[in-house]
User: What shape does this take?
Amino acid sequence: MLLSVLVGAAELGRGRVLTEIVAQLTGGVSPLSEREAAILWDLRVPRTVLGVLVGAALAVSGAAFQGVFGNPLADPYLLGSAAGAGLAVTLVITTAPQSGLSIPVQAAAFAGALGGVGLTWLIGRSAGPDTATLVLAGVAVAAFLTAGQTFLQQLRVESLQQVYLWILGRLSTTGWREVLIVLPHLVVSAVVLCLCARLLDVLGTGDEEATSLGVHPGRVRMLVLIAASLATAAAVSVAGLIGFVGLAVPHLVRLAIGGGFRIIVPMSLLFGGVFLVLADVLARTLLAPAEIPIGVITAFTGAPFFAVLLHRRRA
Assistant: This one.
């Protein structure tokens, strides 16, 4: 986290930044000008904090989805949250200026993500109670919503760049407001998922065995999916569609620490935050002063990891 605060387009001096942090903690004299202090405390620090929160939200949601579906290739976007958010944001960007409406992109993304998951749940549960049916419903819903998004983009070609920038994910337009959007949703979701982590291990033994141990598989899955989808929607609403965090990080935890979901779920919070902050540092520094969308960085690192997982599953 400290590294993320130290780097940026504006050169503040690492020693002066460290002195400023100490001064704020101890009540000392600030070595920075008013403009430099604003860059540090209103841009870099909230961006770093948001990176931790978004990374933690996506990673813990990915771990939860993998536990619910019993599939290590599951990720937080499996049930249509990404497609729903993408359609909602595209709708706002392409139609709001012409209609005179003023709808925040964050609100649209949050509602769209939850709407996509809700639609998947309704279709999946009406077709059957098993998780495989729910996954197929998610595929169908995501395909339909993505088609709608593409149609809207073709109607308003001039808005393509703005839509694509959001889709690729970014932390560059963040402040304390975005931090306050994600924080309460992540806290609630993280508490629920950590409390349910042991139950995910029980579900891994099979529904019959779980039922014999007094666990209701359907209720546990519903609670976990609601909590994970809430965290995912909050993350997507402020940072766009950042891929592979929810897929790769839980596996990194398994490789580094091992253990069941009672360990993987809470540790994914920590590893996810660190992973995304490091990705953001790379996004800001590789082509400085230009900035690479953070979703590109996570894709470059996550896609090869995904390929390795597929190879190991076939071996």
